[in-house]
Amino acid sequence: MQIRKSLCALVLLASTVATSSSWALFGLFDSDSIAAGSRYAFIPSKIEPRIVVIDTQNDELAAELGLTQVANNLIISDSLNLLVATHSESSLISLVDLETQSSLSPMDIGMTADVGLLHPLDQYMAFGNNQGQVSLWDMQTRKKMFQVNDLDSAVNLTFSVDGSRLFIVEPRDRKISVVALTEQSVIAEIDLPEPTQSKDNQVGSVQIKPEISSISRSADGYTGFLSITSENTVVVLDLLKLEIKKIISVDSEPVRPFSTADNRYVLIPHRAAESIYVLDALSLDIRRNIKTGVPARELNTGWLDTVAFVMSANSEEIAVVDLEKLALEQTITLTSQPDGGLVTSDSKRLYTALLNTNRIARIDVRSREVLEINSNISGLSNIKIAVSNNVCH
Q1: Structural domain boundaries in the chain
Q2: Contacts by 333-340 with C-beta closer than 8 Å and gap 24+?
Q3: pTM for the whole thing?
């Protein structure tokens, strides 16, 4: 047990090498740097062109930043001290220097961006949209590297662990397009399984677009997992050979899988079934089906992967699951419905925006103590931090 925790701690430390999201200006507090990647969390408003910055060391507001328009996504580069905000109605992206909190000249990326994703090397960013366009940019030089068009959609994006490939899930075409960064083009396609009963996915002769999650990587990066939510299926992928390893039938409405950093489990939270399937990461056998009583929006782990938090999709609850005993431990009730969660890189604190409010909830992963942080900005959603404990997304 001690060895496992030590290995997990090393993986969590290694995760201090990146992930995503970003913003623009009018700091209302002070001019101190907010560039420490594992310290500051950023929560945009979905109704105001503003963002809250939380100091996760002190659990207090560090800044409130303003934009010229509402942002739909944030990408943060720790090595570049750069925040990027994308806007659904514009091809312009907003840039902020986190060292000085100064607004930089906006960039025109030549396409709208519904999502953005940080490359593992922390210098490049991929932007995708529902129109089937994806482009890769070097954010140090502010130069476009290449763009791929004519995909079904390009919003479910995942980089390979070494950053050499970009995996794009295309739900309507039921495939994964694999883009190689060296070739700057699609080099392979992985066909996803057809539904076991075609009537589940059709109305008359018109096919309904299936609900499919983005790919989550195993801790070593060699295996990928995605949920076909609308068909109660999880697909296991070999990300080196670019082929399907296994197809697993699961409970009703699985959402995006979560691979623990210790490479012990793959956790499959379910929305309709209100449960978690626990898969052995090596054998892919189902170890346990844990009833949580919470319709899952997403799942996060904390405290060296010994506990999991299931965020509710439609209530004020978070289910807490003991990953040592593989059992439901307790249910936390908040004052409002939680959004997606974010766990700090030391795995000690979970943060989530409370939907339709101006508040952020902080949960101590060990004591389960809840603290609410008030802001002056309403409609908070989609919290981001540059460095977290999530190594599978």
Answers
A1: 2-385
A2: 334/361, 334/370, 335/359, 335/361, 335/372, 337/312, 338/297, 338/311, 338/312, 339/297, 339/311, 339/380, 339/381, 339/382, 339/383, 340/297, 340/298, 340/311, 340/382, 340/383
A3: 0.89
